[in-house]
From TrEMBL:
<dbReference type="InterPro" id="IPR024072">
    <property type="entry name" value="DHFR-like_dom_sf"/>
</dbReference>
<keyword id="KW-0560">Oxidoreductase</keyword>
<dbReference type="GO" id="GO:0006730">
    <property type="term" value="P:one-carbon metabolic process"/>
</dbReference>
<comment type="similarity">
    <text>Belongs to the dihydrofolate reductase family.</text>
</comment>
<dbReference type="GO" id="GO:0070401">
    <property type="term" value="F:NADP+ binding"/>
</dbReference>
<dbReference type="InterPro" id="IPR012259">
    <property type="entry name" value="DHFR"/>
</dbReference>
<keyword id="KW-0554">One-carbon metabolism</keyword>
<dbReference type="GO" id="GO:0046452">
    <property type="term" value="P:dihydrofolate metabolic process"/>
</dbReference>
<dbReference type="GO" id="GO:0046655">
    <property type="term" value="P:folic acid metabolic process"/>
</dbReference>
<dbReference type="Pfam" id="PF00186">
    <property type="entry name" value="DHFR_1"/>
</dbReference>
<comment type="pathway">
    <text>Cofactor biosynthesis; tetrahydrofolate biosynthesis; 5,6,7,8-tetrahydrofolate from 7,8-dihydrofolate: step 1/1.</text>
</comment>
<dbReference type="InterPro" id="IPR001796">
    <property type="entry name" value="DHFR_dom"/>
</dbReference>
<feature type="domain" description="DHFR">
    <location>
        <begin position="9"/>
        <end position="169"/>
    </location>
</feature>
<dbReference type="InterPro" id="IPR017925">
    <property type="entry name" value="DHFR_CS"/>
</dbReference>
<protein>
    <recommendedName>
        <fullName>Dihydrofolate reductase</fullName>
        <ecNumber>1.5.1.3</ecNumber>
    </recommendedName>
</protein>
<dbReference type="GO" id="GO:0005829">
    <property type="term" value="C:cytosol"/>
</dbReference>
<dbReference type="GO" id="GO:0004146">
    <property type="term" value="F:dihydrofolate reductase activity"/>
</dbReference>
Amino acid sequence: MKNNSEKVFLAHIVAASENNVIGANGDMPWHLPNDFKYFKNKTWGMPVIMGRKSYEALKESLPGRINIVITKKTDFHPKDALVFNNIEDAITKAKESDAKEIFIIGGGEIFKQTIDIVSRIYLTRVHATIEGDTYYPEINKNIWKLVSAQSFPADDKNNYPYTFEVWEKNIDAS
Ligand SMILES: NC(=O)c1ccc[n+]([C@@H]2O[C@H](COP(=O)([O-])OP(=O)(O)OC[C@H]3O[C@@H](n4cnc5c(N)ncnc54)[C@H](OP(=O)(O)O)[C@@H]3O)[C@@H](O)[C@H]2O)c1
């Protein structure tokens, strides 16, 4: 267990197009295996919290991570994930682990409800304007500061150029 003086980061990890699309028809509208590797590397061994629709899109829980699903349903009992009926209880459960970081991994509804309480955003910016039906909130640059960015071109496996951005809450703004 962590003692209270140890800081646990609550983070979003998300891939979004230039126009903030994160999903279309229940899926991600691009093929970026390098982003999957990045996601796996960052979240491995950590608790991951997600909305019920994102969990169902995955089809099964993510290996090597504590999977926590949020739903209002009372009859949703997947065998490979913990389930909570609100975001606060899900975060409380995730904090019981020894993880240094807790990841909120989507989707749109959950990102929107938690952007004010996370302190870090791992944003893979997909450099394209894409049609979709699910969006990430606009990052408010008065509140958030870009602390790192690593850009990559499209290639034969990754169909758009992309940048791995890390944003942290700008403490000067509070
Ligand atoms: N690009 C990315 O990085 C990324 C990441 C994740 C997902 N996605 C995409 O995002 C889309 C899914 O996102 P979405 O917004 O439709 O759904 P979602 O956020 O994954 O899940 C929504 C569901 O979560 C539950 N929920 C939401 N708020 C709640 C609350 N306060 N208390 C209790 N339960 C709550 C409800 O489940 P019940 O209806 O069961 O009550 C709700 O229907 C898909 O297209 C997926 O591919 C993209």
